[in-house]
Design goal:
By secondary structure, the chain is mainly alpha-helical. The protein has a domain at 60-316: Ribonucleotide Reductase, subunit A. 62% of the residues lie in helices and 5% in strands. The protein is built from 16 helices and 4 strands. It has helices at 6-11, 33-39, 47-56, 58-64, 90-102, 106-120, 122-129, 145-171, 176-189, 198-201, 207-234, 238-268, 270-283, 300-311, 316-329, 341-370; strands at 16-21, 24-29, 375-378, 384-387. Strands 1-2 form a two-stranded antiparallel sheet. A two-stranded antiparallel ribbon has the order 3-4. Helix 11 runs antiparallel to helix 12 (238-268). The chain is globular and about 65 Å long. The protein starts with 5 loop residues before the first helix and ends with a strand. Bound molecules: fe (ii) ion (FE2) (2 copies). One fe (ii) ion binds next to helix 11 and helix 12. Its main location: plastid. Homodimer. Belongs to the fatty acid desaturase type 2 family. InterPro entries: Fatty_acid_desaturase-2 (IPR005067), Ferritin-like_SF (IPR009078), RNR-like (IPR012348).
């Protein structure tokens, strides 16, 4: 997942302080629960009702959501895209891969590394899904369809980090120690869904906002991996393009599943779902690797986001397009339910938001184009500098 959309992250009203604990550096949010209640009243109410709704949808999930998981026997594995260490031609294949990798630009590698680090923080995402009332895996091997989905989704996602990690290791283009450190730090820090940390001041254990987030997020990763595939092809590396494309197509299947869940929620609990959609968008869909740190750069996520924006791997225009897509996908403009006042207001807000974001993005792009870009070192590529 990836709002390397820096201005979105910056617009966030949450302030972070850092504290040192032994050798590790963890980031702690200072926004209080009381503030959050004032700002986002509906997220913190009626969780019991929402959990009940998810329980009543178990049969539906079994028939309509689990079908989006691909059987293991039909799934690709990392090995299908990489030199085979058990074959005699292994060394030659690695040499070929490294020869192709030499032709690719540093800024591309920074995007690919950031994508890989995001994928490698998967334990956090499974944890976050399991904080949600009504869908959590109560035992670790629960037969509940929501739990089966979360485990199946995680098992598919696990291949993404594996594949990118192994490719980058073989490419010889990056500093693996620095990258591995960044992953370890990120797993220590966790993630924010809609601001702050989890139940403290994020969306908490609200499955409605969580599934709006994943609907957006999985589409964002599909866009991002799709673009790294396209750019690899433009730079003449067909194998790398295939590898990124395979990940992008998994993400597309996942986004379809999550969007179907929210579509169903709109049908069974229209008012609350509209509120959840609007609240998620007010909080901004900040990407899950927002707290990334490599032990050196305090602004690593911001700097990485600027590279993805400049290269066009994931941009603020993509953010607006995804929002617009979701508004259309869920037919939000045409919903004519018996809203309470807040529901109507929420509908109006989300329907008008994408054009506003586009206008803001254009303005900030024009301003950036006028200034000289800064050169910033990235430890992932041995401190070589990139314009941001
Ligand atoms: Fe993924
Ligand atoms: Fe994903």
């Amino acid at each position: 997942m990836h709002a390397r959309f820096e201005s979105m992250a910056m617009a966030f009203k949450v302030s972070f302080s850092t504290l040192n604990s032994g050798n590790a550096k963890y980031r702690i949010s200072s926004t209080s629960l009381t503030d959050c209640r004032k700002k986002y009243p509906s997220v913190l109410k009626s969780h019991t009702t929402k959990a009940e709704i998810f329980r009543s949808m178990e049969k539906w999930a079994e028939q309509n959501i689990l079908t989006y998981l691909k059987p293991v026997e039909k799934s690709w594995q990392s090995q299908d895209f990489l030199p085979n260490p058990a074959s005699d031609g292994f060394i030659e294949e690695v040499r070929e891969l490294r020869k192709r990798a030499k032709e690719i630009t540093d800024d591309y590698y920074v995007c690919l590394v950031g994508d890989m680090i995001t994928e490698e923080a998967l334990p956090t995402y499974m944890t976050v899904l399991n904080t949600n009332d009504g869908i959590r895996d109560e035992t670790g091997s629960s037969p509940n369809p929501w739990a089966v989905w979360t485990r199946g989704w995680t098992a598919e996602e696990n291949r993404h980090g594996d594949l990118l990690n192994k490719y980058l290791y073989l490419s010889g283009r990056v500093d693996m120690h620095q990258i591995e450190k960044t992953i370890q730090y990120l797993l220590c820090s966790g993630m924010t869904v809609g601001g702050g940390r989890g139940g403290e001041n994020g969306t908490g254990n609200d499955p409605y906002t969580t599934f709006v987030y994943t609907s957006f997020q999985e589409r964002a990763t599909s866009v991002s991996h799709g673009n790294t595939a396209r750019f690899a092809l433009n730079q003449g590396d067909v194998n790398l393009a295939r590898l990124c494309g395979a990940i992008a197509s998994d993400e597309k299947r996942h986004e379809a599943a999550y969007q179907k869940i929210v579509e169903k929620l709109f049908e069974v609990d229209t008012n609350e779902t509209m509120l959840a959609f609007a609240e998620m968008m007010k909080r901004k869909v900040v990407m899950p690797a927002q707290l990334m740190y490599d032990g050196r750069d305090e602004h690593l996520f911001r700097n990485f986001s600027r590279v993805t924006q400049r290269l066009g791997v994931y941009t603020s225009m993509d953010y607006a397009d995804i929002l617009q897509f979701l508004v259309e996908r869920w037919n939000v403009e045409k919903i004519t339910a018996d809203f309470d006042g807040n529901g109507r207001e929420a509908q109006d807000y989300v329907c008008k938001l994408a054009p506003r974001i586009r206008a803001l993005a254009e303005r900030s792009q024009n301003m950036k184009n006028r200034g000289e870009p800064n050169l910033v070192p990235f430890s992932w590529i041995r401190d070589r500098k990139l314009p941001i």
